[in-house]
Amino acid sequence: MKNNKGFTLIELVVVIVILGILAAVALPRFMDATEDAHESAVKGAAGALASAVLLVRSQFELNRNGGNQGCAGGNCQIDVQGFGNNSVDVNADGWPIGTQRTGTPGVNAGMNPAACNQVFTNILQGSAPTVGTAAGAVDYVTTANGTVCTYTYQHDGGDDLIEYDASNGEVTNDFN
């Protein structure tokens, strides 16, 4: 007698039914994975920005309270020494406000998109997400209003935000 090897029709039907049930249960979970990844990207960037803002402020305080020894030309607000490439400028309270300021900027020094971009790229440095003033090949589009920089995430509908208030150093995020 011949010994046939293979699956019976009933075995194949059972396997197909099991795969169908698994697909029906698992597929909705995988569909949310993309949104979860975008939310993690926004929250991660906001957390990194908040930490970097505090590091700049800490370096400013160290320089200022050390008898101006760590200050470029005696001015602790311009080109904060000891942080990154020594190019970040801060306002009177020590919060980052860009890289091309002069004098002694006040607490409510106005921000513009270019200064917001300078803050983002210079305090996050190396592997920072990309920022710019126009949508396209950037991760975040930058706008400014008064002392507040708004970074709008572009990869998930353009309604997710990171805000940085240069008057008090507060960083918040809003994921919709």
- The rounded distance between the terminal residues' Cα atoms is 68 Å
| Count of extended strands | 7
Class inferred from helices and paired strands: alpha+beta
**What string, H for helix and E for strand, traces the elements in order?**
HHEEHEEEEE
- The total tally of domains equals 1
Stretches with pLDDT under 50, minimum 5 residues: none
Strand order in the largest sheet: 3-4-5-6-7
What characterizes the major β-sheet? 5 strands, mixed
Query: In which range does the helix fraction lie?
Result: 25-40%
Radius of gyration: 26 Å
Mean pLDDT: 89
Count every helix, treating DSSP H or I runs of 4 or more residues as helices.
3
Notable traits:
alpha+beta; 5-stranded mixed sheet; 176 residues; 7 strands
Textual characterization of the structure:
There is one protein chain. The protein is an alpha+beta fold and 176 residues long. It has one domain (36-174). 39% of the residues lie in helices and 17% in strands. The protein is built from 3 helices and 7 strands. The chain has helices spanning 9-31, 33-65, 113-124, and strands at 89-90, 96-98, 131-132, 140-145, 148-153, 160-165, 170-174. The strands form 2 sheets. Strands 3-4-5-6-7 form a 5-stranded mixed sheet, covered by helices on one side. It has a two-stranded antiparallel sheet with strand order 1-2. A hairpin with a 5-residue loop joins strand 1 (89-90) and strand 2 (96-98). The longest helix is centred in the N-terminal third of the chain and has 33 residues, at 33-65. The protein is elongated, with a radius of gyration of 26 Å. The N and C termini lie far apart (68 Å).
